[in-house]
Amino acid sequence: MRYLLYYWPSIQGRGEFVRLALEDAGADYADVARQPGGMARMMRLMQGRSLAQPPFAPPFLAAGRQLIGQTANILLYLGPRLGLAPRSDAAGRFKRTPGTCCAAMRAYVAAKIASRTVVMA
Known about the structure:
This protein is of the alpha+beta class. It is 47% helix and 12% strand. It contains 5 helices and 4 strands. The protein has helices at residues 14-25, 38-47, 71-81, 89-93, 98-116, and strands spanning 3-6, 29-31, 60-63, 66-69. Strands 2-1-3-4 form a 4-stranded mixed sheet, with helices on one face.
């Protein structure tokens, strides 16, 4: 499945967590707002004239016919599907508690940043 990530093209923030998860899993995705006409597409979706429940704000992810908003919801959706989290509810329940979720995400992002940091001599 090809995922469509909608987030501001020049702001590293909540959308970066989603982008890093997609990159780490090697998922097929497009960062829509960075494409020609992408910002207009994102704004049309947020205005939501054709949607029963339009997204409130980026980031949001189109996955097939689903439109998923909010970073935590997107990561909960993607985690098991991309092999980044346990598939069973029992195995994943502890991992979804706020403290473990935040600590795990901070550690994950710190490790990704550290692995991609280039030191200039």
